Amino acid sequence: MSRFISQRFTNLEAYVPGEQPQDKRYIKLNTNESPFPPSPEVFAAINAQEVEKLNLYPDPEGRVLRQRLAQFYGVGMENVFLANGSDELLNFFFMAFCDESRPAAFPAVSYGFYPVYASLYGLPHDAVPLREGFVLDPADYCAIGKNIVIANPNAPTGRALGVEDIEKIVRTNPDHVVLIDEAYINFGGESCIPLTGKYKNLLVCQTFSKFRSLAGGRLGYAIGDSGLIQDLEKIRYSTNSYNINRLTMAAGIAAIDSNDYYEKNGRIIQENRAYTISELDKLGFETLPSQANFIFTRSPRIPGGTLYRSLKARGVLVRHWDKPDIADWCRVTIGARNEMEIFLEKIREILEEAK
Ligand SMILES: *Cc1c(COP(=O)(O)O)cnc(C)c1O
Questions:
Q1: How confident is the model over 337-348, as pLDDT tens digits?
Q2: Within the chain, which residues score under 50 in pLDDT?
Q3: Substitution site in 209, 213, 293 for ligand 1 pocket (most atoms within 8 Å of beta carbon)
Q4: Model confidence over 81-95: pLDDT tens digits?
């Protein structure tokens, strides 16, 4: 840090993304990417004609993509907001809706970016503890009187809430915005997008990064009441009106148009998840039930940090956090079948060595 950084940021602790090492090829089960390439339609959409137009700015309103998303979800175009990854959307959410008098509340064990954005804007925030077994109790958020951010399914636990539980939270906080981060909703959870027609204080955000194999394209979106969308637009136009680049816009449209391809991949991930959990069971691991493309698991014999390092030494990356309440655990992305077989093979080796 130089002596020139604004005082506002001297105590800011930045988000630390999962490692993306470039030194050798790892089996990457650490950042919840899809093991599958984008659909053939996406390859076709990123063509020479599209590259040729890179001298021109993209549509700042993203009309074609917003139209497609609106059709896909049965909402109006005025209910769709596009972001450069859902991370950007989260940033805009905190900027647009939170302040001293409207603090934010989110689960104490959840996506690590929530507290970072809250700190970035110097916002008071409330990290609400989870219950036994990392269970999120909706009662803890009812009438809490704060803006709320909940990842559903939650990360890194993989546990999901039902739509009725979310509705209870939204209904009992009518004067605050509730953001449901559905980054992993397509792997078994139930989306609350249908509720956005009924509640003016509900925003649902999703991403193309996980289920739609487009993490490198950076594309996310929110669905909600047009008033909330206009507020987000105000912030977007005050930050970067061309936040979605032309190639990503084309890729996003093609991805929505090839939904069957992704649905099929999603089913494979769910099968591989069930397989991985049952094999880990046999090895004595404890794994939380998951509705996401990752699992949260721990060995009764090997500490989480040791497991992470031993796997990395064997060419398999998983995610581990050195935080007291989750230090025993590792989050493992569900990849292709052969990747999960190699992961399990390495686990067996590590257990054998630890005997
Ligand atoms: C991955 C993830 C995001 C970020 O997704 P991008 O669209 O790639 O920025 C947001 N929320 C949660 C809970 C995530 O796990």
A1: 999 999 999 999
A2: none
A3: 209
A4: 999 999 999 999 999
Best mutation site among 15, 34, 86, 331 for ligand 1 pocket (most ligand atoms within 8 Å of CB):
86
What mean pLDDT, rounded, does the chain reach? 97
Calpha distance 270→65 (Å, rounded): 28
Q: Domains plus CATH for the chain?
A: 7-37+260-353 (3.90.1150.10), 40-258 (3.40.640.10)
Please classify residue 352 by burial: count the beta carbons closer than 10 Å to its beta carbon, then call 0-12 exposed, 13-18 middle and 19+ buried.
Answer: exposed
Q: For residue 184, give every residue at least 6 positions away whose Cβ sits within 8 Å of its Cβ, in sequence order, or none.
A: 32, 151, 153, 155, 158, 210, 211, 291, 292, 293, 294
Query: What pLDDT is stored for residue 355 in this prediction?
Result: 82
Nearest CA to ligand 1 atom 14: 183
The one-letter code for the residue type at 204 is: V
Distance in Å, CA 39 to ligand 1 centroid: 20
For residue 24, the model assigns a pLDDT of 83
What's the pLDDT tens digit per position in 248-262?
999 999 999 999 999
CA of 57 to the centre of ligand 1 (A): 26
Q: pLDDT tens for residues 190-224?
A: 999 999 999 999 999 999 999 999 999 999 999 99
Residue tagged 């046999």 (tokens): 282
d(C-alpha 154, C-alpha 182), whole Å: 9
Pocket of ligand 1 (CB under 6 A): 32, 85-87, 111, 151, 155, 181, 183, 207, 209, 215, 220
Q: How far is the CA of 28 from the centre of ligand 1 (A)?
A: 17
User: DSSP string spanning 232-298?
Assistant: HHHHHHTT-TT-S-HHHHHHHHHHHHTHHHHHHHHHHHHHHHHHHHHHHHHTT-EE---SSSEEEEE
pTM, rounded to two decimals: 0.97
From the centroid of its chain, how far is CA 42?
21
d(Cα 43, Cα 217) in Å, to the nearest integer? 12
